Amino acid sequence: MWRVSDALNRRGFLGLAGASALAGLTGCGADGEAAAQPKNGGRLRAVYAGGGAKEVLDPHVQSLFVDIARHKATYEKLVELGPDLKPVGRLAEKWEHDGEATTWRFSLRDATFHDGGKLTSEDVLYSLARIADPAVPERVAQSSLATLDLRRSRTVDARTVELVLTAPNAEFPALLAGIGTQIVRDGFKDPTKPVGTGPFRFVSFEAGRSMIANRYDDYWDEPARIEELHILSADSEARANAVQGGQAEYANDMTATFARTASAGRTVRIVAAKASTMQAFVMKVDRPPFDNPDVRMAFKLLTDRQRLVDVVLAGRGEVGNDLFGKGYQYYPADLAQRERNVGEAKDLLRKAGLLNKEIEFLTADASAGFVESATLFAEQVAEAGVKLKVVPGSAQTYAKDLLTNGVIGNHRSGAMPIPQYVTDRLLTKSPFNVTHWRRAGFDAGFAAAQRLTDEGARSAKYGELQGTLRDEGGILAWGLPDYLVAVSATVQGVQAVPPNTLDSGRFDKVWLA
Fold first, then answer.
1. By percentage, how much of the chain surpasses pLDDT 70?
2. Whether domain 200-274+483-512 has CATH 1.10.443.10
3. CATH code of the domain occupying 278-481
4. pTM of the entire structure?
5. CATH superfamily of the 76-183 domain
6. How much is the pLDDT for 11?
7. In the predicted structure, residue 5 carries a pLDDT above the cut 50
8. Domain named Solute-binding protein family: which ranges (predicted)?
9. Residues 6+ apart with CB under 8 A from 339
């Protein structure tokens, strides 16, 4: 028997889409004051952290925020994530499964590509096959969609596609909302000539500098209000100067220090998605000294989380509790907050023979707060008689380097569903398993949880697994930073939502007052 997804039963696709549109129309700023009525026209310049020559137009090869923003403007996914990190339909108008979450049917909406062609189920199958192509391993959604059996998947009709999995997965719609899952035209070959269904039509692109796009008047979800969109690349200081100096109207991922300074003026407004990202220290559980669970627990007990939030985040955030996803669906909210206990930590370190020893901490200026948090943490650890030597690495290659090098380092994650975070980072074959947490029993338990179509039972199982991770794993989540965006006082309709969600960086819903 086919079953409509739990997400649709709870909220209803039309209700959610309507809510998102209404949110964009209210025009409330970060301070909650009503803005002017929406109007059309004008150019918006949005500036993001740049990646130089590594920036790409291929929507299936992306990891940088600036790439994601460009692809979001021109392409769309079947499913996106709402502000609560639950899946909501986009190109997929609705979906249902066979009762076991092995075979899924997605009904497509009436959408049109920029070249005038209608969206069809063949486009969906082609896009997923392109993502899954083993000859191009850099397509980022391959691991999360690894259980998709394209040989058995099929078109039911022009606007209905049936996707079959090799194993049941009640979270499958959320996986289709992940990074790099955009739908392209059947036969799409040349990423330098983007043709999507998104709200903006591609004009030009120069890696490391800019993309220009114009409003697509036949967009199914109402045409954008602005006429022209420029997505630009710049470092943190340049982004700050641009939005303050009038060279940009939107600046992404700003520091708490800048936010404090900007808030004192009248030309720039800060839009803050509260506690919507995670900063952590990550310990490799298969390498000394962190292959000893007592040492991992000692470091967790040595952490003064509030001090890190106050100093590194300038108070713009909340303390973490050694797990990803606090406040998101499936997070075990009944877990007590871990408190600092230097005495207990010292006993564990003495037992492990680690007192008066030196450990190298690999860090880099790859993300705001990394070096500062490592330095402050070294001071905290020193109180228990352990020297943490902070070793800076390359900012450009830090994320890749940390996968294989060192024993402890910095980690940051944006918003995503908890099951996706586990899939990408905490299973034996996860591509981004920086803590080297590899346990067959954990893998099996996670797979069993995903097969449960009852949300309550699934949530309980996820909670058990996360309890194990918190106490035994290598993630020391110390803080949940606010995600900060700076906008010109003339910009309205920007939503305070977590990154990687539907209304984050959604420029078709903003306007210039």
1. 93
2. no
3. 3.10.105.10
4. 0.85
5. Dipeptide-binding Protein; Domain 1 (3.90.76.10)
6. 30
7. no
8. 86-400
9. none
